[in-house]
Amino acid sequence: MNFFEQQAAARRGSGRLVLLFAAAVAGIVLAVDAAVLLFTGSAGATAAASVLTLAVIGLGSLYRIASLRGGGAAVAAQMGGTAIPEDTRDPSLRRLRNVVEEVAIASGVPVPRLFVLEQEAGINAFAAGYGPADAAIAVTRGALERLNRDELQGVVAHEFSHVLNGDMRLNIRLMGLLFGIMMLALIGQRILVYGRGGRGRDGQALLLAALVAMVVGGIGVFFGRLIKAGVSRQREYLADASAVQFTRQTRGLAGALKKIGGLQEGSRLNERADAEEVGHMLFGDGMALSSWLATHPPLAERIRRLEPGFDSRQLQALEARWRAAPPDGLAEDAALGLGPRDRSPPPLPAADARLAVTPPMVAGQVAAPAEDDYRRAHDLVEGLPAPLRELARARATAMPVLAALLLDADPALAARQRSELVARCGEALAAQACELRRTGLEALHPIQRLPLAALAFPALRQRPRPELDAFLDAIEAMVHADGQVSVFEYCLSKLLQVQVREALDPARHARFGRQKAPGVRAEFAILLAVLAEAGHPGQPQQAQRAYLAGLQRVLPRDHLAYAPPAEGVRALDAVWAPLDALAPPAKQVLVEALVDAVSHDGQLGVAEAELLRTVCALLHCPLPALLTDSP
User: What is the pTM of this model?
Assistant: First the structure.
């Protein structure tokens, strides 16, 4: 399945989850009613028990959902994750950060926040969040110590599949709903622990109530595991396939799975309660459950899909070998030549380079990087000046780096932009941004601007909310300082604003699109007209033909005249929300129409490609860092 099909499948999974949850609630209520009717024989008590049970389940789910509103970082912290500092000197943590940054840039999404589960010796990982802007990836210490770089890359690529395809959103909602149907079991456990000292009839009644809650709660636990297995298992196969598609080699992912099967710790988590709650989100099975309740497919079958000739007996040989000498990931890197390479990155494309593209080819690359994108992302990061990379990653300097990206080359306009920045964020930040623009960013290649912003994003979203609000206002004012903002500058500023606001309130912005194309005709026309004009400057006839080609692709039965809005790019403010709410199939057609509008001649320049990538990112259809001529 491509990105849009995966998104549609995740949306269907969300609806199926609601139906399964309703069936589980009905089963629990019926069990409670039967128990109450058996012991009391009262219809009134049975009705009251039904209401109370529904209230417990509903309030439990609402409480858990509310506790997860902070998004991926909140989930990782609640599971015992320790945030990885940007200045870490731990070789394993630096390697993880480098791998995640490269995968994020190759995928066209912000770099997620990183956490390590220090007390977990098993090999495991999970991605959590409502969307890419608030995503967090947590990796166990066992994975960092046992996996080599290729294997770690395979695990990270697997988790990025969940980030890109809507699985995270489904998983985090699943956590909230399942907490509610497991509430009765939790209540029964607490009563047994704290109510043992009760005596007499009251004590016996309390003990009986606890036992009933435990038994009925067991129904909730059973349904919860059944729901997780039903929702999660097939998505794990798809994530494995996506990871292989991304890395173009099965060795890394298969090697990680073999180490799970061959090491005593496997993928189990020490904290059983955590493993129960996040089992459906993990890379490997966090609990030893029966096969039909397991959240993950059988390990041997996952390996066999990657290596058809694999024999499960090979795991026994690996287990014997690793029992004597457990694998060391960093040592394997050195032996296999997977460590840092002392070479200069290849030159970037010339500013006037052209790439032959077709709309289906570009749409096929959404959230599905091509064969060399990982290497290209690595080269893009390494091609950035080392001091600039460190400034972007640092919490104290991420804002000046991003502000410097938006400072204009024209000195008069840059002075007005500086004034807007001083008024909202202070003299120190403005001075640092101007210095960065003068010394480090003037010569930055256009292709490096979005990757630099992606590197800065984890540090940026750690700033206090009032500072972020002021910074977003400053960005808006800088872009409109002269009233004649370029389309790319406008889209870059809008992308930063959208990503930061989604990171601040992730649950509020989480949704699966359902809008159909005919409902957003005017928005289509505005966006295509602006992009056609930007893609063909000074060529009104070619711009009109490009606009009509895009319109024909997305609305073949409509005839909307080419009319670039008088207010220019500001007219786009009204189009983002309606177009982002499109259903996945309609979004795929929209991406193809955007390609037509920007490159009606079948050629994309560097500037047009970066504009297209930025617009697609605003619509949550991420494109790789460098478009290629093959999907």
Answer: 0.84
